[in-house]
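REVIEWER CHECKLIST
Item 1: Sequence provided? yes
Item 2: Single chain? yes
Item 3: Sequence as submitted:
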Amino acid sequence: MRIGFGYDVHPLTLNRPLMLGGVRVPYLFGLQGHSDADVLLHALCDALLGAVAEGDIGRTFPDTDPQYKDIKSMVLLQRVMARVKEKGFHLANLDATIVAERPKLADFIPRMVKEIAEGIEVEPGRINIKATTTEGLGFTGRGEGISAYAVVLLEEEVGT
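Item 4: Structure as written out by the authors:
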């Protein structure tokens, strides 16, 4: 078994859609970044890459490479999951937390689970997503950005 941990943060900005967990969340602000800036999927990519000792999302998909400009983070996640499978592992489970003061995300979490499960071809029961606030403290509490944490457990495929 392998454990991986990921963290990501992006500032909020006007005139961008807010993408979280592969779901467009209606909100006045979106996340600033080279890709679609989906912090949840970026944290998940880092957790998966870490579990298979493949660095991080920035090394794998550098923001200096124009091919990743405005790319959907789900595409990045699918590419990372392909690496995980190539290395002989499958996802046992994923647990993630989105940290955002606003917008409220509870109603969107079931769709995020569905999108991620379909995107990486795992059962939804292997995925848990939570959302929390910082009670008004720090950059998230002031509404300046959103962050996400993810931890994954990978199991080696039998016979590899």
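Item 5: Key structural point noted by reviewer: The mean pLDDT is 96.
Item 6: Recommendation: ____
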